Amino acid sequence: MQSTARKLRVALVAGEASGDILGSGLMQALKQRHSDIEFIGVGGPRMEAEGLKSHFPMERLSVMGLFEVLGRLRELLRRRKDLVQMLIAAKPDVFIGIDAPDFTLNIELKLRRAGIRTVHYVSPSVWAWRQKRVLKIKEACDLMLALFPFEARFYEEHAVPVRFVGHPLANTIALEADRAGARERLGLPQDACVVALLPGSRGGEVGKLGALFLDTAQRLLQSRPDLRFVLPCASPDRRLQIEEMLSGRDLPVQLLDGASHEALAACDAVLIASGTATLEALLYKRPMVVAYKVAPMTYRILKRLVKSPYISLPNLLAGRLLVPELIQDAATPETLATTLLPLLDDGSVQTEPFDAIHRALRQDASAQAAEAVLALVEKR
């Protein structure tokens, strides 16, 4: 039900495509609850379609990798300073930083000191490593909007105002996937045994895991010659990268342009890189084996810094070892194939808890986030 209260000015900043999706959903939900809102800040095409006047193109913030950031650092610092000055002058009723914590938390800190209410949407992995960042978050944010319940518990323990809103994907993805429909759309036989290979969406991830996953597929074929494989490619560049790795191999693998959700709906089991995709596999109720590799020096540093006993979201959400995690030297074709094979015959031991987790995350995140933001504004 819409409010006829005074006009609100809401500032939002998103730094990449996933934030643009979250931001547009939140803006829709805010408009449903308040009749007169002006949106300012920085966002992508989805947020602009909902009425955001973007101060500059969101693509200028979409930088991945240490060296890429260093190469653009002067521009990023200049844009952030300019954005803070603009927002302080505009005096929005509330500022919402969406993910991109290295960029948005500093904005939140300066705006809060200037008397503007601040919200951060999507928690950094502060519960896993660099936990002292929670002190900066406490100083910068009036409210943290957390996608997962274990994140909310962490902030409650550190006396940071928090609201668990659930994960938007839990509402987007049906409680029961249409395997037959997905197979028909992908041209896969209904009676085939299908393994999805998801080695990541970034070039570095695919470089470290792509050949490993294809070697594992060849091992699996030795035990199950009837297997079929699907491999979603996140971009044309990733497809070329995979095609080069497939050269000289005789593998029944179907490359897909995007379509990772179709692949998860169609498959019987998944070999997957650690990341958000593991949550998607959980929501599709597919048994999985999680693998990850980084540079040896990076691994040695992270091993000292990371406090969490798990790296994959299914295990973090369950609070126990639910899905196998094979990291660094433990991730070999032999071990991955041996671990995955039993799941092809019966993955129910692993997937039975997935439904309860899905329902717990199915909170209508955009609506919950909008209600929390408006409640914060009304406190003034």
From TrEMBL:
Known catalytic reactions: a lipid X + a UDP-2-N,3-O-bis[(3R)-3-hydroxyacyl]-alpha-D-glucosamine = a lipid A disaccharide + UDP + H(+)
Gene Ontology process terms (BP): lipid A biosynthetic process
Pathway stated in the Swiss-Prot or TrEMBL entry: Bacterial outer membrane biogenesis; LPS lipid A biosynthesis
Cross-referenced InterPro entries: Glyco_trans_19 (IPR003835)
Gene3D superfamilies xref list: Glycogen Phosphorylase B
Sample GO molecular function, one term: phospholipid binding
Domain of life of the organism encoding this protein: Bacteria
Keywords, alphabetical: Glycosyltransferase, Lipid A biosynthesis, Lipid biosynthesis, Lipid metabolism, Transferase
Protein name listed in UniProt: Lipid-A-disaccharide synthase
Coiled coil (residue ranges): none
Primary gene name: lpxB
Function: Condensation of UDP-2,3-diacylglucosamine and 2,3-diacylglucosamine-1-phosphate to form lipid A disaccharide, a precursor of lipid A, a phosphorylated glycolipid that anchors the lipopolysaccharide to the outer membrane of the cell.
Family indicated by similarity: Belongs to the LpxB family.
EC number(s) reported in the record: 2.4.1.182
GO cellular component, as recorded: membrane
